[in-house]
Design a protein that fits this description.
Blueprint (H helix, E strand, L loop, with lengths): L4 E6 L3 H12 L4 E4 L6 H6 L1 H22 L11 H25 L3 E3 L3 E5 L2 E4 L4 E9 L3 E3 L13 H4 L8 E5 L3 H12 L3 E6 L10 H13 L3 E4 L3 E6 L2 H7 L24 E5 L4 E4 L1 E4 L3 E3 L6 H4 L22 E3 L10 H16 L13 E3 L5 E5 L2 H7 L2 E8 L2 H6 L5 E8 L5 E7 L3 H13 L4 H6 L19 E2 L1
Parallel strand pairs: 1-2, 1-6, 2-3, 6-16, 8-9, 8-14, 9-10
Antiparallel strand pairs: 4-5, 5-6, 7-15, 11-12, 12-13, 17-18, 18-21, 19-20, 19-22, 20-21
Helix pairs in contact: 1-10, 3-4, 3-6
The structure holds NADPH dihydro-nicotinamide-adenine-dinucleotide phosphate.
The site of NADPH dihydro-nicotinamide-adenine-dinucleotide phosphate has 24 residues, from helix 6 and strand 17.
Length: 480
């Protein structure tokens, strides 16, 4: 049977684009459909704009630091309009690069929504049906908002980058990556940030000590973090609500892109009642309460593809669905929602299907960073996970780093190793520090290689650095 294409990819995010390009490089005839903008969540409304905002927000502390180091500088206001214009120009540039890379690899781009019709057919919103030997679903996910009265007044991380005004105050709901990262970003940009998390401590699943230090650092920087707290009810604030609160209007910014998001409630704000009984008016409410796979109206049921309880496409270790010609990678499979993992899954798919080399995706020991302020880098098991599996030794150092101590800042750093008593392998490493993401990338190599505590000890320290603590911690702080 002959097909129009060897591979049809649905979704132009990091995973889909990489799989399409690498498959085309093997000589396969490949097409890719994207209904919105090329680059997906990571490039358009995720990692990239988020990280640029982390950089922007970091400057607020640098004025004080610079003065402490002898510079004569004055604080100035942050111009969101100026930054936003530059940010979107950068995203446009990156989107252009993604398109160019696909073009250059010989991948046919369809700017259309694609729906699976059967095991080998895809229907495009242009009205055309195309056939392919293999179909790869890489449609990603989208933010979910809890069912609370008035929740439609809030925004999600999708809209943050499109705000046409920086709010004066914001309530962020959630305690995961996105909530905690945006709490730091917006606080750094001068927004009055309140964060509600329903559980006992933010960043559930990360090492307890590390989460504790991040939360403490966030509070020290001015974030009003409420644990065990959620929204009961919210509605558009009335003028009386606002007068009682004494809130000012949002900071004006330059109007720019057509797809911009106005401040909530026509500038009147949002009245929120919390589970702790308090009520308050915020200029904006941001829900960062998790993400769900993009699997609705994709033709999955019609094609007989198994979908899991959380709406995810169920795949095996080779990213193959129960329909042999259809594969899925990235957030739509709800395995590990991280860009580099989606890219790995895409490459393993090509290796398996187009290079005849069955390659399972390795999801073990994935290093990752949370770009909170302070930043958290982590790889491997937390102390809590490890001690449930085997006896471990905990090596831990918490201190004021040289640069902050000199500047008179209170920020503390955490360097922590979780070590197996039996094999001496470093099972986990957790770092809370400036540039923890950069550090954990490198520690990740050693941990992935199976380095022991003694391997760390044999490595000479780089002095004076924060990371030298990782190779100079002699005695375990405790056994667990
Ligand atoms: P997470 O799953 O990390 O966090 C969701 C948060 O919302 C949790 O704190 C959760 O609480 C809370 N929550 C869920 N439902 C409700 C509700 N009904 N009411 C109140 N709170 C609720 O999701 P995110 O949206 O933050 O991020 C999605 C994924 O994106 C992450 O898992 C991560 O893989 C990826 N990501 C990675 C980044 C990075 O690498 N730096 C940055 C941003 C995202 P509870 O803990 O109680 O369930």
């Amino acid at each position: 049977m002959s097909f129009d294409y060897d591979l049809f990819v649905i979704g132009g995010g990091s995973g889909g684009v990489r799989a399409a390009r690498v498959a085309a490089a093997t000589g396969a005839k490949v097409a890719l459909a994207e209904e919105y903008r090329m680059g997906g969540t990571c490039v358009i409304r995720g990692c990239v704009p988020k990280k640029l905002m982390v950089f922007a927000s970091g400057y607020s502390e640098m004025f004080d630091d610079a003065r402490a180091y002898g510079w004569d500088v004055q604080d100035g206001p942050f111009d969101w309009g100026r930054f936003r214009k530059k940010l979107h120009a950068e995203l446009d540039r990156l989107e252009g690069i993604y398109r160019k890379l696909l073009d250059g690899s010989g991948v046919e781009i369809c700017d259309a929504r694609a729906v699976i019709k059967d095991a080998h057919t895809v229907s495009l919103s242009t009205g055309k049906d195309v056939t392919a030997k293999h179909i790869l679903v890489a449609t990603g996910g989208h933010p979910v908002v809890p069912e609370i009265d008035g929740a439609e007044l809030g925004i999600t991380s999708n809209e943050v980058f499109l705000l046409n005004e920086m709010p004066k105050s914001i309530l962020i709901v959630g305690g995961g990556y996105i909530a905690s990262e945006f709490a730091g970003i917006l606080n750094g940009l001068g927004v009055e940030v309140t964060q509600f998390y329903r559980g006992a401590q933010i960043l559930r699943g990360f090492d307890d000590e590390a989460r504790g230090l991040v939360a403490e650092g966030m509070r020290d920087k001015g974030i009003d973090l409420h644990l065990g707290t959620n929204i009961v009810e919210m509605r558009q604030a009335t003028a009386e609500d606002r007068n009682e609160e004494g809130h000012a209007e949002g900071m004006p910014m330059e109007q720019g892109r057509p797809a911009s998001v106005a401040p909530s409630g026509d500038g009147k704000g949002i009245w929120v009642k919390a589970t702790n009984g308090t009520t308050k008016v915020y200029d904006q409410v941001l829900f960062a309460t998790g993400r769900t796979p993009n699997t609705t109206n994709l033709g999955l049921q019609e094609a007989g593809i198994t979908v899991g309880r959380r709406g995810e496409i169920v795949v095996d270790e080779f990213s193959q669905t129960n329909i042999p010609s259809i594969y899925a990678i990235g957030d739509v499979t709800n395995r590990v929602q991280l860009t580099p993992v989606a890219i790995r899954e895409g490459m393993a798919f090509v290796e398996t299907v187009f290079k005849g080399n069955p390659t399972p995706v390795d999801h073990a020991l994935i290093p990752s960073a949370v770009f909170t302020q302070p930043e958290l880098g982590t790889v491997g098991l937390t102390e809590e996970e490890a001690r449930d599996i085997e006896p471990v030794e905990i090596y831990c150092s918490s201190f004021k780093p040289m640069n902050h101590a000199f500047a008179g800042r209170e920020d503390r750093v955490l360097m922590k190793l979780v070590v197996s008593k039996e094999t001496r392998k470093v099972l986990g490493c957790h770092i809370v520090a400036d540039h923890a993401g950069e550090m954990i990338q490198l520690v990740g190599i050693a941990v992935k290689m199976g380095a022991t505590k003694e391997d760390f000890d044999r490595t000479v320290a780089v002095h004076p650095t924060m990371a030298e603590e990782l190779v100079t911690m002699k005695e375990p702080l405790r056994s667990a």
